[in-house]
Amino acid sequence: MLRYLLSRLGQSLILLLLVSCIGFMVLNLAPGGPLSQFALSPGMTQEQIDKIAAQMGLDRPLVMQYLDWLWHMVRGDWGTSYRDGQSVLAVIGSHLFATLLLMGTATTISISLGAAIGIFSAVRRGSIFDHTFTVLAMIALSIPTFWFGLVAIYIFSLNLGWLPAGNMYTVGDGSVLDYVRHLILPASVLALVDVAIWSRYMRTSTLTVISQDFVRTARAKGLTRRRVLLRHVVGNSLVPMVTLAGLQLPMVLGGALVTETVFTWPGMGRLFLDSLGYSDYPVVMGLLMTSALLVLVGNLAADMIVALIDPRIRLN
Amino acid sequence: MTATLSTSAPRRVLLGSRALRRFVRHKLAMIGLVMVLSLTLACFFGPYLLAYDELFIDLRARFAPPGTGAHIFGTDPLGRDIAARLFHAGQISMAVGFAVMAIATTIGSVVGVVSGYYGGKVAAVLMRIVDAFLSFPSVFLLLALAAFIQPGPVMIALIISATSWMEVARIVEAEVKSLRDRDFVQAARMLGLSKSWIMFRELLPNAIGPIIVAATLTVARAILLEAYISFLGYGIQPPLPSWGNMLNGAQQYLASAPWLAIVPGVAITVAVTGFNFIGDGLRDAFDSRTAGE
């Protein structure tokens, strides 16, 4: 187990290094560059820009800049925001909670709803229920998340007036109930795509488990269908879903970015867009790394959980 | 049932007519085909039937609801005809979708076939790069790229391609890896055929089924991604319309002019659903395991 853990950890670190390399190159090779926003200030001469570049170390070869950035990042110094001079880690930290809250809620909704639909579709394979949800899932996968958000705001906030159209809490309120009311719409919108994906995978997974010998044995022992389903099938078909949850993370994170924009949710997605608008390279780079880090940690955690609950993988 | 045949002969011989028959019988795929075809026809021939040009500004007719006069889908905040803009936007959005399909499928196939054929260190490096790209949320990477590059339709297509080739690479790699030691490949080697011939003429055609499926789904994905980044203001820039940038300003008028948001959104959903239905049908048509269902 320890060896498996270490080898997976090593792989993740290599991957993270590659990710940082790609991210850094992408940002720095793009035209404009970190200095473009300084060049916009009136009265700025080329000489002054060169001076700033030299001060910030931007006149060195790209490889040196990368290694320097990497060395600082590993030691927890992610640089300072060009916008307000705050440390990048502090800026990201203050937006992390909102995004994790949104993603966590959405994932909870999508896993429970998706698993339920998937199991039911598998048990009633070929029924109208099964076919309807097959088609619905494909349509759900085709709706742009942000547009679904706009429609939801139009119906539930503007017309029915049931829920707030944006923000995380009401200024001056901030009770748990207030948070929940603000959370319902964005979390449901973000969950939609994942409910579709989860239900499809859960259906396949359940069908695979149902056709296995131990299920037939359980039925042959005289257990009722319901008992076999709850005790033997559901648990086993959920195992591959843990891995899937890890693999889905980049999608959920990307969806959160767009959902946050529509619902003015104060999370990392909004921060990312704002920073892009200001060409705030250190924050953009920090967010790219944070998102990759979240994804890799998520995948690692998923692999660990699977290894813990499924001895077949641990022993290999 | 085809298993015994396909062990000796490359599978492509069987793909043609049988797959086509299965595809045509696939109800969802046919619905998808109708959706995509009618939308394409509307986008390319619709503009000739409309009374207004997509750039014609009529400030007296701002925010006209759908059905006002000849404005079947209403007008936008500048009094431009939404139907005309929608059709032109469709041409651009779909062109981006198909361009991405071509570019991403090519990159993915080359990476996949090379790492599948060579294996070992080459595959290890290439597939780790694939993994690294998959670790980014693609919207983040896309926005980071688009924000710092002057985005025209060509650039947008290239950027979306850069985040869409990994799926094909994985599929092709797996397929090629499973075939590279088969007899027909050994025979080709003994005949003295070049490595690139073996890779692209002998091995790659065997993965054509999964590649076509992935390519179809890539069109759907690309249309969605273009909509995302254009909605956020970093994609295709006005006055050139795209389905995404038509939605860009729609949120602020949601209460007074909801059709601004509804019309382009429905167009995107119909197009993407159509391509996804077709992809699903193709998958069933090419996959002999699910053919019996």
From TrEMBL, chain A:
Residue intervals passing through the bilayer: 12-30, 96-123, 135-159, 179-198, 233-263, 283-309
Keywords in alphabetical order: Cell membrane, Membrane, Transmembrane, Transmembrane helix, Transport
Protein location = Cell membrane
Please provide the Gene Ontology terms (biological process) for this protein. Answer: transmembrane transport
Query: What cellular-component terms does GO give this entry?
Result: plasma membrane
Q: Does the keyword DNA-binding apply?
A: no
Q: What is its membrane topology?
A: Multi-pass membrane protein
Q: Does the keyword Transmembrane apply?
A: yes
Locate the ABC transmembrane type-1 domain: which residues? 96-306
Domain of life the protein comes from: Bacteria
Q: Record's family?
A: Belongs to the binding-protein-dependent transport system permease family.
Q: By what name is this protein known?
A: Peptide/nickel transport system permease protein
The source organism is Rhodobacter aestuarii
UniProtKB/TrEMBL annotation, chain B:
Tell me where on the tree of life, at the top rank, the source sits. Bacteria
Q: What keywords are annotated for this sequence in UniProt?
A: Cell membrane, Membrane, Peptide transport, Protein transport, Transmembrane, Transmembrane helix, Transport
Q: Name the InterPro entries on file.
A: BP-dependent_transpt_permease, MetI-like, MetI-like_sf, OppC_N
Please indicate if the UniProt record lists Disulfide bond as a keyword: no
Where does the sequence pass through the membrane? Answer: 28-50, 95-118, 203-236, 256-279
GO terms for cellular component: plasma membrane
- Family assignment from sequence similarity: Belongs to the binding-protein-dependent transport system permease family.
- Protein name (record): Peptide/nickel transport system permease protein
**Organism source for this protein?**
Rhodobacter aestuarii
